[in-house]
Amino acid sequence: VKERILTAVNAGASAFSLGGSAFIVLCYILFKELRKFSFKLVFFLALSDMFCSLFNILGDPSKGFFCFAQGYSTHFFCVASFLWTTTIAFTLHRTVVRHKTDVEDLGPVFHLYVWGTSLAMTVIRSIGNDYGLGAWCWLQTGRTGKLVHLATFYAPLWGAILFNGFTYFQVIRMLNNATRMAVGMSDRSRQLDARLDMKALNRWGYYPLILIGSWAFGTINRIHDFIEPGHEIFWLSLLDVGMAALMGLFNSIAYGLNSSVRRAVYERLDLWPERLRRWLPSHIKLRGQQE
Asked: What compartments host this protein (predicted)?
């Protein structure tokens, strides 16, 4: 019964993440005005989340080749997902703090870094391979396998969280300093620019919390399972499965649903026939006019 509940929670949460990620991917494909370098990184983040969720939904595959394929694919795309968040943080830091304008030239380096690291982590985890933990082929039951899973997934994950947190802290601190300087100089135009920057970027300080919220319970659960194998804590497993599977949805809302995406969607809604627009909620019409 517990396994069925965990499988259902995993499939349901992953479906939400798949829908959110697919929406961002679709927006990037359909709306040409979104195809800027910064949103291209968000596109690849959403693409990774989409495949991570898709393979996660497969759930309880039979043992054999399909189980290996599902396990490795899930690991590969989930690692790629949190690595793409580090490229977004790096781009922001290089642009805002270091005032560099060469970030677009780093596109090939980002791809090599994300896909190369994801592939390396996926290959290394074949050490001590012993799949078959209930509904998830990407988790391992052997003690060596569990240790390798911690090293090839959770270690780089928390490295990414620390990097993102430090990077966003520096960006927000610099923008705060710029705001104080503008106030001290009584420069109204610079004050307005600084306020707009802070309004747009203040929420970025919460982005590392997405990864923490998604994977904190999973990390605790993996460590507990490594120390005391066979002594499962059901509520911890439930939070582990549910929050991890929602990562794609959290990312699509935080990174993807920015003002540019909303504006692009609202502009298309304006092209709808009047009889269809009448069925839209009033707050969507009002926000469309404001955008």
From this structure: Membrane
